[in-house]
Amino acid sequence: MTRMFTSPREKVDSTNDLHSVASGFTRRNLIGGALAGVALAATMTSGAATAAAPLRRNGSSSMANEPFQPVDIVKIGLIGLGNRGMGMLGSWVSVPGAQVVAVCDVRADRATRAADRVANAGKPRPREYGGSDQSFQKMLDTEELDLVYIATPWEFHYAQGKAALRAGAHVGVELPIATELDELWDLVDTSEQTRKHLFLMENCSYGRNELAMLKMAHDGVFGDITSGHGGYLHDLRALLFNDGYYTDDWRRLWHTRSTASFYAMHGLAPIAAAMDINRGDRFTTLSATATAAKGLADYRERFVSRDHRSWKEEYINGDLVTCMISTAKGRVVRAEHNVSQPRPYSRINTIEGSRGIFEDYVGGDATGARIYSEPRHGGDTWRGASALRAEFDHWLWKDLEGPAAGGGHGGMDYILQWRIVQQMRTGQVPDIDVYDSAAWCAPVPLSVMSLEKGGRPVEVPDFTRGEWKKLRLGLDSVRSTMPAVV
Amino acid sequence: MNTKLIRRGAIAGLVLATTLALSAQAAFGATPGEPVPTDPQVVTETPAAAEDAAPERSTAAEASTAAEESTAAEESTAPEETAAAEESTAAEETSGTDAPEDAEEAPAPEIALDISEISLDGPAIAEVDVTVVNDSATAMRSVAVTFEGPVGWQVAVVEDDLGSIKPGTSETATFQVRIPEKRPGFELRVFTAEATYKGGDGAGSATSSRAVPTAAPLDNLATAFNNVGITSESATTAGAFDNEGNSFSAEKLAAAGAGKGAELDVLGATLQMPSVDPGTRDNVAAAGQAVRVQGAGERLVFLGSGSSTAATGTVTVYYSDGTVGTGSIGFPNWSFHAADAHGAQLVVSTNGRNRPSGYGDSAYQYRMFAHSVPLDAGKTVEFVVLPGNSSMHIFAMGIAP
Ligand SMILES: NC(=O)c1ccc[n+]([C@@H]2O[C@H](COP(=O)([O-])OP(=O)(O)OC[C@H]3O[C@@H](n4cnc5c(N)ncnc54)[C@H](O)[C@@H]3O)[C@@H](O)[C@H]2O)c1
Predict the structure, then answer these.
(1) Hey, how many other C-beta atoms are within 10 angstroms of the C-beta on A303?
(2) Of A354, A424, B98, B378, which has the highest C-beta tally within 10 A?
C-alpha cells in the first residue's frame, strides 16, 4: 500500500460518485444553523455538568463485552445513498452472509438505483423506501433488520441511529454518531436499554498501518505510551464547493454554523485504540484551539463564480481546530481537523512512548510510515515501517488482503464491513462499541465548549460509567473465520 | 558476569516445580497438532526488599529482542548494554549481598508473593492472582499490591488492597494484563509484583517476579544456523557473511586447520567448526536466539566474527537453578579491524575471501575470533540467549571446564 495523496484509496471521505442536488427538506438544527448562538449557550450551561455521568436508565446495564446474538444471515437496511452509502453498497452485497433487504434515501431515485445495483449483482432485490425525510422510519417500522447502516449528513445521524436501535436493530453510523453531548449520552443509554449495539463506522480503525501500530503498541514496541497524535487533514475545498457532491451543500454549511472539530475521528480512533481508551484508560479533559477561518473564503474568492449561492455564506469554522485531550493515565492526545486549506492528505497516526515512536504519512517507505524503536534501532535515525508492519500485520489483513484489494479506501472499508458481518454471524463482541464511538465523537461538542471558554479544558464524560478501568480486547482481536453460507 | 540473585521464597516448591518444567521444555512443540502444554515458567522470589529497590524488569528479554539491523551507529548506543547494566544494579539492590551462593542458603523470607501462572497465548486479557503469604509471627496491615508486566503491557487492577493478613495465612490480589499476540522467537516475559505493608516481618515491602519464556530454547547452535558464512572457492554465490554476499573460503580455512568439523582449542574450550558443507548455513547471525548448552565450567566460549565493526552484545546465561547471568562479548570486523577489538582473541586467519564473482581479495586477511563470558562456579548452564545483533556471526560455542 502506498500512501499517495492522489490515490483515491488513501483519502477517506471522497468517492467519485457525483449526484445532482434534489429538492431540499427540513434540516434539523443542531450545533449550528440560525439558532447557533442559542445552541452554544445551551451547551455551555450544561457544560459544567459534563463530567458526571447521568444515572443509568432503569433496568439497563453496560454493553461493554456484550456479544452479538448470532444470526446466520445479517439482514441489512441502508439509510442514505449518496457518495458514501453507494460506495459501501458493493461490499454489503458481497460480504458472505450479508443481505441488503431494504434501501432508503430521501431522494427516492437513489433508493431505486441502489436496489437496481443489488439486483444486478444477482441478489434478491431490496425493498425501496424514499420520498420523504421520514421514509427511514417507515423502513424501520416495516422491516425486520439485523443491522442498519446510516450514511446521511451529520445532522441526521443521532435521530436515525436512535430510531434504528428502538426498532431492534444494531446500528453502524457514519462519522460522527452525534454532534451534541446529550445526544451521545442518549445513544449510549438507548443502546444499553435496547441491548443493541450502535457503533461508529470507523473504517480507519481497520487501516493496515493503524492496526499494525496498535499491535506494536500492545507488544511494547514503543514502551510505555505517553502521547499520540491523529486527525483528519484533507483538502476538501473543491468537493465542498462542488455543486451536487454533498447534497444540499450540507457539509459546507457546517462551516457557516459552528467552530468545532467536526471530524477528527479518522485519526483519533486509532490513537485511542493504541492507548486502550475505554479499555484501561479514558479521555478525561479536552481543550481546543481554532485558527482563523481563511481557507474557504479564499478558495471561493479565487475559484467560485460570483453568482454562486455560496457567496451568501460566511465561514466561521477555524481552518485548523486542534484538541488536546488528556487521559486518566497521564497521556496526551493531539487531534487535528483541517479540511479547508491546501495541503496533502494526512491522518497523522503518530504514537510515542518510552521506547519508540511511529509516524504515518511521512513517506518513510512503501508504507508511508516511519518508526524508531529501542532496542531494535539505534543512532536516532528513522527506519521505514515495512519490516515492523509485516511483523505486526493484523490477521484481518493477512486473511483478507485478496478480497479487500480494490475496495474503498485501500481495502479498509471492506475489512470493516466483513468484520461487522462476521462478528454478527458468529456472536462475537464488537471491536467498536457505543462507548468507543461516543468517546471518539465527543470532541465535536467538547471543542465547541472549550473554545467558548477561551480554550480552557472541559471534562470528557465517562460514557462507560466506570467500565473503562477493565481491560477488553477490542480491535487487537483473536483470529477467527467467516462461517460458510448455507 | 553479573548474576541476578534469585532466592527461594516461602513457596520454594513452586520455584523447583517451574524450574523442572523449564528443563523439560524440549519435550514440547515438536509434534504439530499435539496440544501445546502450558508454558514453563520461572518464578523468582526476592527477599523482602529495601524500599527503594527497583522492581525487576524484563531486561534479559529486552536484550534478547531480535536486532532488525545493525550499524556502527546503532551499536554505539548499544541498548543491550544499558539493559545489562540496569540489570546488574537491580540485582545488587535486591540481593543486598555480593555472593549469590550465600544468599541461596539464607532462610526463606517470612513474607512471600506468589504470582499465578500466566499464559502468553495472546491476544488475550489474562487475570493474574498475586498471593501474599504471611509466614511471620505478626499480622500484616495495610497490604497493597502492585503488578507490572513487560514494558508497555497494559495492566488493570481488579483488587489490590488486601487490608490485613493474619500470621500463617494469605490473601490474594487480582490484576488483568493484556497479553499481545505471541511472536516467533525466544523472549522471556517478566512479570513483577510488589507488596507494601505494615507489620509482618517489618521489612515494609516484598517483591516477586515470574519469568515466562515465549518458546523453548533451540536444541543446539546448529539448529539456530541462519547464515552462510563459508563457501567453496568453486561455488561462492551462496555466501552471505556480509551484506554484499561475501564469505570465508572453505579451502583457506581448511588449510589453516579450521576445516569442516575441525576441533579447535580456544580459550580453554574445545570448539568444533560447523560440520556442514560449504555453501550451507554454518553460523548464527545473532538475533536473540535461545540455545541449549548444558554443562558447568569456568567460561562459555564463542567462536565468531563480525560483519561490522560493532559486532558486540550481551549474552544471557540461564542456569538450571533458575538464576540468570549476563556478560558482554564482541568480535572485530572480519577484516580491517584490530584483532583484539572488543576484547576478542584471534583464532584463525585466512588470505582472501569468496565474493559472489569468485575467490579474491587475496592480499587481505579474513579472520575468526574467540570471546567468552565467565560462568558461575558450581552452577549448571541450561541455555543461553544470544545477543541481538545480526552483524555478530557465531560459528561455534562451548564450555571451558
Ligand atoms: N468513513 C468514511 O470514509 C466516509 C467517507 C465519506 C463520507 N462519510 C460520511 O458519510 C456520511 C454521508 O456523506 P456523503 O458524502 O455520502 O454525503 P451525500 O450528501 O453524498 O449523501 C447523503 C445522502 O443522504 C440522503 N439523505 C439526507 N437526509 C436523509 C433522510 N432523512 N433519510 C434518508 N436519506 C437522507 C441524501 O439524499 C444523500 O443521498 C457523512 O456522515 C460523511 O461524513 C464517511
Answers:
(1) 11
(2) A424
Q: Calculate how far, in angstroms, residue A361's C-alpha sits from the geometric centre of ligand 1.
A: 27
Any chain B CB within 8 A of the CB of A215?
yes
Domain boundaries, chain A: 204-395+432-469
The closest CB to that of B154, out of A374, A391, A471, belongs to: A471
Contact indicator for A38, A30 with CB cutoff of 8 Å: no
Q: At B158, which amino acid appears? A: V
DSSP state of A240: H
User: B238 is written with which cell numbers?
Assistant: 551462496
Cβ of A252 below 6 Å from ligand 1: no
- Confirm or reject: Cβ of A77 under 6 Å from ligand 1: no
Tell me, using a 6 A CB cutoff, whether residue A106 lines ligand 1. yes
- The finding on whether A298 has its CB within 6 A of some atom of ligand 1 is no
Starting at the earlier edge strand, list the strands of the sheet with A147-150: A127-130, A98-105, A74-79, A147-150, A170-173, A198-200
| Distance in Å, CA B160 to ligand 1 centroid | 48
pLDDT tens for chain A, 486 residues: list them.
233 222 323 455 543 222 222 222 223 333 333 333 333 333 333 333 346 799 999 999 999 999 999 999 999 999 999 999 999 999 999 999 999 999 999 999 999 999 999 999 999 999 999 999 999 999 999 999 999 999 999 999 999 999 999 999 999 999 999 999 999 999 999 999 999 999 999 999 999 999 999 999 999 999 999 999 999 999 999 999 999 999 999 999 999 999 999 999 999 999 999 999 999 999 999 999 999 999 999 999 999 999 999 999 999 999 999 999 999 999 999 999 999 999 999 999 999 999 999 999 999 899 999 999 987 887 899 999 999 999 999 999 999 999 999 888 999 999 999 999 999 999 999 999 999 999 999 999 999 999 999 999 999 999 999 999 999 999 999 999 999 998
Q: Where are the beta strands (DSSP E) in A291-406?
A: 321-327, 332-338, 350-353, 356-359, 370-373, 383-384
Q: Which CATH number fits domain A204-395+432-469: 3.40.630.30, 3.30.1330.10, 3.30.70.20, 3.30.360.10?
A: 3.30.360.10
- Atom in ligand 1 nearest the alpha carbon of residue A84: 16
The alpha carbon dihedral of A425, A426, A427, A432 has a sign of negative
- Atom 38, ligand 1: residue with shortest CA distance: A82
Chain B residue numbers touching A380 (CB-CB < 8 A): 77
ipTM value for the complex: 0.89
Amino acid residing at B36: V
For ligand 1, pick from A20, A157, A174 the residue to mutate: most ligand atoms within 8 Å of CB.
A174
The closest residue, in CA terms, to atom 11 on ligand 1 is: A151
Size of interface A-B (CB pairs under 8 A): 98
Closest CA to B44 of B206, B205, B217: B206
B301, HSE (Cβ side, Cα atoms, 13 Å): 21
Q: Does residue A12 line the site of ligand 1, with CB under 6 A?
A: yes
Tell me how close the Cα of A48 comes to any Cα of chain B, in angstroms.
29
Q: How far apart are CA B74 and CA A133, in angstroms?
A: 63
B190 touches chain A (CB under 8 A): no
Sign of the C-alpha dihedral computed for residues A127, A132, A134 and A138 taken in this order: negative
Are the C-beta atoms of residues A361 and A270 closer than 8 Å to each other?
Answer: no
Would you call B118 helix, strand, or coil by DSSP? coil
Q: Rounded CA gap, B268 and B401, in Å?
A: 7
Residue A473 buriedness (CB in 10 A; 0-12 / 13-18 / 19+):
middle
CB B130 within 8 A of CB B157: no
* C-alpha of residue A289 to centroid of ligand 1, in Å: 28
- Best mutation site among B69, B76, B125 for testing chain A: the one with the most A CBs within 10 Å? B125
Closest by Cα among A154, A160, A143, A144 to A198: A160
pTM, full prediction: 0.79
A391 touches chain B (CB under 8 A): yes
